[in-house]
Amino acid sequence: MRGSLVGSMLFASVALGPARPSAPPAPPATRVVMLGTGTPNADPERSGPAVAVVVGDAAYLIDAGPGIVRRAAQAARDDSIHALEPARLRRVFITHLHSDHTVGLPDLILSPWVLGRSDPLDVFGPRGTKRMVDLLEQAYSEDVQIRLHGGEPSNKTGYAANAHDVGAGIVYRDSNVTVAAFNVAHGKWDQAFGYRFVARDRVVVISGDTSPSDAVIAACNRCDVLVHEVYSGERFRTRPAEWREYHAAYHTSTEQLADIATRARPKLLVLYHQLYWGDDDAALLRQIRAKYRGTVVSAKDLGVY
Ligand SMILES: [Zn+2]
Ligand SMILES: [Zn+2]
Q1: Could you tell me which residues come within 8 angstroms of residue 245 by beta carbon, excluding any fewer than 6 positions away?
Q2: pLDDT tens digits, residue range 33-75?
Q3: pTM of the model
Q4: Residue list, CB under 5 A from ion ligand 2
């Protein structure tokens, strides 16, 4: 079953008790669409990490996991979210350069162009993003040349990508949103970001990959939606010692996230990039709710919040 705003609101009223007015609230203008909730595990139900903040006809993508363009096309088709039509995908904010978050980058640069996008893709990310994009351009230069000059009726501009290595602080602004990057702790990476989106009606924070970070709490601070990575704290105890050491340094357990959310106080906490190790969504939610009283959902691909 796919998540949805309606589903999460119903869920909230059941889970938390307080009666809600009979007329449903108007849906927010700013929506969070989960294009991929997965991890490096090749789960056919979960594409690689990618989230879209959608404001009107504009989409702001966070990360480019494998499957991103097809999931965007699916959201455009099945949920009529036209901002996610492939030819409209124009900008992406990369949290860090782990492959599960970037393997979809050549897809995002090239496929929308082949499907008609004439604007280059803007790519924002940590140090090394520009180098990665430059190397991808080289890697696909034969394809680009044949599409430009081999008789395909292609546009001559949309294959390019404008990459920007950015630091913490405001990295982007337009009439819909202001986007700020903040540093999070992700093991030995010297630069990994979360992102904070401020739109007219909502503040949305994406944790990226992180061990417990006070920066996430400060960025959210009663935000509307906090999308946070998580692993099963219960199953963690059954993992081999070297993997426990790794995950403790790089990621956030259910117990730790309960504490973070209690202090960050989001209106809605959305779990993504879930590492289950045999648990399921209900088990993750049970572990979170043991220590956290706010509204929480465990996202599936194409959930809309
Ligand atoms: Zn990851
Ligand atoms: Zn990572």
Answers
A1: none
A2: 999 999 999 999 999 999 999 999 999 999 999 999 999 999 9
A3: 0.91
A4: 98, 209
